[in-house]
From TrEMBL:
<feature type="domain" description="SAF">
    <location>
        <begin position="73"/>
        <end position="135"/>
    </location>
</feature>
<feature type="transmembrane region" description="Helical">
    <location>
        <begin position="46"/>
        <end position="67"/>
    </location>
</feature>
<dbReference type="Pfam" id="PF08666">
    <property type="entry name" value="SAF"/>
</dbReference>
<protein>
    <submittedName>
        <fullName>SAF domain-containing protein</fullName>
    </submittedName>
</protein>
<dbReference type="InterPro" id="IPR013974">
    <property type="entry name" value="SAF"/>
</dbReference>
<feature type="region of interest" description="Disordered">
    <location>
        <begin position="1"/>
        <end position="42"/>
    </location>
</feature>
<keyword id="KW-0472">Membrane</keyword>
<feature type="compositionally biased region" description="Polar residues">
    <location>
        <begin position="1"/>
        <end position="12"/>
    </location>
</feature>
<keyword id="KW-1133">Transmembrane helix</keyword>
<keyword id="KW-0812">Transmembrane</keyword>
Length: 256
């Protein structure tokens, strides 16, 4: 009887140890519902290296783009307003550092290549010098055209005349004499306020100023005569005309 009791005690002890080991996952089958420990995650060094390369490459590309955007080169710029037909000289040019991919903008190192050229159109102060704005032919070359100064009197010409405007010049009639159209002319230099009365000021208390016109040479004397007698009137035909469009200039006077 004592032997049986001892055997049962030993069996119970063995079963208790087995249940304890099973609960710890050491041996035997896990109890129903018990979660298995997850297997260790495999590391993928190739993917980690690829991520690092992408980050480094992106940073390098961003730095290169920033350097290109901040790349500035010295180019030529106008130091003052330049009327159409004006010769380009060293004193009207300055230098500025800008970022531009245009091959028309003149670098400061190419200064000598533009000296002696002429402004094809009116240029503004601070404007970058562009080769498309220049012409090598003197607008007075060939003896076909002349520059004349004429009065611009209030009420006899449109307001806001500017360099590059194409105008119709008329000799104003008097004492029953009809007006006579003289020429289609190009405004080279916009009206500049004169110092007072007289011919260029319109005479007396008239408010006036002077403009420089490019006209056909065969009508230049008649325009100077009309200007000297304060009989000039103008009407606006077109704006932004280049000095190279000299075929638009015309002698309108009727010769008898």
């Amino acid at each position: 009887m004592a032997m049986r009791t001892t055997t049962e005690s030993v069996s119970d002890a063995v079963q208790d140890r087995q249940r304890a080991r099973t609960a710890r996952g050491v041996g035997g089958r896990a109890a129903p519902g018990a979660s298995r420990p997850s297997p260790p995650r495999r590391r993928r060094p190739a993917f980690a290296l690829l991520g690092v390369l992408l980050i480094v490459g992106g940073a390098a590309l961003a730095g290169l783009l920033a350097l290109r955007m901040d790349s500035r080169d010295p180019v030529l710029v106008l130091r003052s307003d330049v009327p159409a037909g004006t010769e380009i000289t060293r004193d009207i040019l300055g230098e500025a550092n800008v970022s531009s991919d245009s091959n028309l903008i003149v670098p400061s190192g190419a200064l000598s290549s533009v000296l002696g050229t002429y402004a094809k159109v009116p240029l503004s102060k601070g404007q970058l010098l562009d080769t498309s704005m220049l012409v090598r032919t003197n607008p007075l070359g060939g003896g076909k055209h002349a520059e004349v100064a004429v009065p611009v009197v209030e009420g006899r010409a449109p307001d806001g005349l500017d360099s590059g405007d194409l105008v119709r010049v008329v000799r104003i009639g008097e004492s029953g004499t009809p007006s006579v159209p003289l020429a289609l002319a190009l405004v080279l230099r916009a009206p500049v306020e004169s110092g007072g009365g007289g011919v260029l000021g319109g005479g007396g208390d008239s408010k006036g100023s002077a403009a420089t016109l490019l006209v056909p040479v065969d009508i230049a004397d008649a325009i100077v005569d009309a200007a000297g007698n304060n009989r000039i009137g103008m009407s606006l035909i077109d704006r932004g005309v280049a000095v190279t469009d000299s075929d638009r200039l015309r002698n309108l006077a009727v010769t008898r």
